[in-house]
Amino acid sequence: MQNIVIHGPCQLSGEITVQGAKNSILPILAASVLSRGECIIKNCPNILDVQTSIEILNYLGCKTKFENSTLIVNSEIISRNEIPDYLMRKMRSSIIFLGALVARTGGAKLTFPGGCNLGPRPIDIHLSSLQQLGVSINNIHGALECKILDKISGTDIVLPFPSVGATENVILASSTCKGTTIIENAAREPEISDLANFLNSMGAKIKGAGSSKITIEGVNKFHPSEYSVIPDRIVSITLMAGAAATGGNLILRKTDPNLIKSIFPIFEEAGCLIKTYKDTLKINAPEKIHSVEEIRTMPYPGFPTDAQAPIMAMLAKSIGTSVFVETIFENRFKHAEELIKLGAKIKVNGNVAVVEGVENLFGAKIRAHDLRGAAALVIAGLASYGKTIIEGAEYFLRGYEISNFPNCIKIEPTIED
Ligand code: UD1
Question: What is the spatial distance between Cα 235 and Cα 49, in angstroms, rounded to a whole number?
């Protein structure tokens, strides 16, 4: 176990290059098993979830090499199509290998995925959609045995909710189908488009990704490709929130302002100035920010649930009261209890959190419970007076490259009292 130690207050200012998107690279790495050759994937973030994906790829028989943000995956040989429970439990995205393995090998054997505890996170939409495609799925004491008798036949699938992961699994599983699959009510997140663009660069025929209707015409063969992952929009928002919480002037390089422009009004309402030019974004924060009226998480292009915790931390020291409504996950306010230990005034009632801005926060020993919650605690630690120790650094490292953050944030081994 490791801790994040922050000596605050520490202003987030200067220039930071934004890493590649976690939520793109994970499905893209699963998709790389389809290439039957060597894929060169650039702008790959060096985070724990990527290490887990590499472990899974190696376990399946792929050869991988990761150097300087470039990950090379050779999937010429896949020697098995099962994923052991200890790897499945390391992250939620392990389930995306299901669609890829079915498309490559005609079957897969795996268990239920782990990941951040944000309340119940079922995979019923993944499984029922794959069943509609003709995948037979047997749940034997938690072990999922999935196979197809012949090729998957294209069909029309209407998702009951625009689940990001289920959309990705259906795209992957049907990429080699007989005929055409149409997904209605598909998730529209930019990372879905990134996955489709990567698959198309390998020879897939996918249209409409980024809209709620995606058409996948099955192909027989893929070829290796070279591809660069889009910038991480949630990391960009986290860094902007860090700058806003600490009165910083920050320049983000290699970001994509178009992917996050829908949340600019929140920063502007808080009193920040934002300027963008191509892949660069500049945020100037006032000494003290203002509260924001209401933030309601929604599927893309709405306010991202992944940004809820970082923005809550940003507003902990604002002037006025802000209201958050979480509509995507049932239990995504665990960071609030920890922010309160730093002096924040937050009241949680079901899926609503009310944040009354305070004058100052003060360092304390707190605990991360999930990835974006950990990012929120880091922002609050930067804005607090004194030393903040955040237990559970691993959550943060699952999604953030620590090298992007200033020196006042250190990762240290846990010392038992
Ligand atoms: C992805 C993102 C995660 C983000 C989330 C919502 C990745 C790697 N992760 O997660 O960062 O927070 O989208 O934007 O891309 N649901 C079901 N049954 C299912 C699937 C989902 O009930 O079979 C529910 C979930 O419990 C949740 C909601 O649908 O309440 C959204 O989940 P989903 O869009 O699938 O999120 P993930 O793909 O897990």
Answer: 15
Name the strand (E) or helix (H) holding 227: strand 226-228
User: Which 8-state DSSP code applies to residue 204?
Assistant: -
Delimit the CATH 3.65.10.10 region(s) of the chain. 2-18+231-413, 22-228
> Which ligand 1 atom is nearest residue 165's CA?
38
- Fill in the amino acid letter for 169: N
Supply the CATH classification number for the domain 2-18+231-413. 3.65.10.10
Report, in this order, helix, strand and coil percent for the chain, each rounded to 5: 35, 30, 35
CA distances from 76 to 27, 57, 72, 377, 401 (A): 18, 12, 12, 42, 30
* CATH of segment(s) 22-228: 3.65.10.10
3-state secondary structure of 341: helix
The one catalytic residue among 116, 146, 177, 272? 116
Check residue 129 and report its DSSP letter: H
Active site residue 116: yes
CA of 123 to the centre of ligand 1 (A): 9
Query: What burial class does residue 15 get, using C-beta atoms within 10 Å of its C-beta: 0-12 exposed, 13-18 middle, 19+ buried?
Result: exposed
Express each pLDDT in 150-204 by its tens digit.
778 899 999 999 999 999 999 999 999 999 999 999 999 999 999 999 999 999 9
Tokens of 103: 């498309």
In short, whether 328's Cβ falls inside 6 Å of ligand 1 is: yes
C-alpha 98: how far from its chain's center? 18
Query: Cα–Cα–Cα angle for 111, 329, 173, nearest 5°?
Result: 40
Is the CB–ligand 1 distance for residue 95 below 6 Å? Answer: no
Strands 409-413 and 14-17: unpaired
The atom of ligand 1 lying closest to the CA of 330 is 30
Nearest to 325 by CA among 345, 349, 352, 354: 352
Please state whether the predicted TM-score (pTM) of the whole model is above 0.85: yes
Kindly state if the Cβ of 124 falls inside 6 Å of ligand 1: yes
Beta pairing class for 70-74 and 38-42 = antiparallel
Express each pLDDT in 91-102 by its tens digit.
999 999 999 999
